TrEMBL record:
Keywords: Cell outer membrane, Membrane, Signal. It comes from Acanthopleuribacter pedis. Pfam families: YfiO. It comes from the Bacteria. Residues 41-217 form the Outer membrane lipoprotein BamD-like domain. InterPro entries: BamD (IPR017689), BamD-like (IPR039565), TPR-like_helical_dom_sf (IPR011990). This is Outer membrane protein assembly factor BamD.
Length: 288
């Protein structure tokens, strides 16, 4: 008989615990979704509350209210504003990431491409990448993406007030990409023999692709030096002459004058007579 009691002991304990939990648990707590579905609260009231929380910078709480509308009232006329507010709540929340914000802005643009606020969403989508731009010596994937999305904004919404803002941001993107190209080109230049072709390609790419967004004094000088190393004398002289005519006070002028003098000797004697010095000035790359 004792054995029977012992065998039933664990079962009786579990049954008692379950009854105790049921008795203490009470009624299920009513959620925002329950109240919305019962009609005790409207989507407008939820949105107003979320907006108030957003304005107080309580972004996590604001998203909680907004997500209820997005999930349980997908046919609401407020849905576009809800989705845009969710995206903004990530963008302006310092504890969130711009990747999260970009996903939400992209979702808005996918669902509401012709909405009156789609130009704003496109601008903010581009800004998600613009804010992630790295220094000139780092990868420029975010810069290129930001540039592309700002261009998309101007193409799709040319009269939007955000298009003017995008133009300024595009200039900054181009400047950073030009800085990056110079940094890489200068690196190849400093590597010396065997890397001149790569340096030439990068430096010419700046001139061809970033008009008005690069430092011509520095770019022309190092391109000319690279071309001279490759014995492309006539092409190098074009850039040396440009420097001599337009940057007469440049720190590069001793080197420029040396090359111009040697060019005359090359034309007369058919050979390079040698240079004053093999050294070239070292540039602080953060002053592009």
């Amino acid at each position: 008989m004792l054995n029977s009691i012992y065998r039933r002991g664990p079962l009786l304990f579990l049954l008692g615990a379950a009854l105790l939990i049921t008795a203490c648990g009470g009624p299920k707590k009513e959620t925002l979704a329950d109240r919305l579905q019962k009609g005790d609260v409207t989507t407008q009231e939820l949105f107003n509350r979320a907006t108030t929380l957003f304005q107080k910078r309580k972004f996590v709480d604001a998203r909680r209210w907004l997500r209820v509308i997005e999930t349980y009232a997908p046919d609401s006329k407020l849905l576009p504003d809800v989705k845009l507010s969710i995206a903004d709540s990530y963008f302006f929340d310092k504890m969130a990431t711009y990747i999260e914000a970009s996903v939400e802005y992209k979702s808005f643009l996918t669902h509401f491409p012709t909405h009156p606020k789609s130009d704003y969403a496109q601008y903010q989508y581009a800004m998600c990448f613009f804010t992630e731009i790295e220094s000139a010596d780092r990868d420029q994937t975010s810069t290129l993406t930001a540039y592309t999305e700002f261009k998309n904004l101007i193409d799709r919404y040319p009269v939007s007030p955000y298009a003017e803002k995008a133009k300024d941001k595009i200039d900054l993107c181009l400047l950073r990409m030009a800085e990056h190209e110079f940094t890489v080109g200068y690196y190849y230049f400093r590597r010396g023999r065997g890397f001149e072709k790569s340096a030439e390609s990068r430096l010419k790419g700046i001139i061809n692709n970033y008009e008005g967004q690069y430092d011509p004094e520095k770019t022309y000088f190092y391109l000319a030096e690279t071309l001279w190393r490759r014995e492309k004398y006539k092409e190098a002289i074009f850039y040396y002459n440009n420097l001599a005519n337009n940057f007469a006070d440049s720190d590069y002028m001793p080197f420029v004058q040396d090359k111009l003098t040697r060019w005359q000797r090359i034309k007369e004697e058919g050979r390079d007579p040698g240079e004053i010095t093999d050294a070239v000035p070292t540039d602080p790359l953060n002053t592009f």
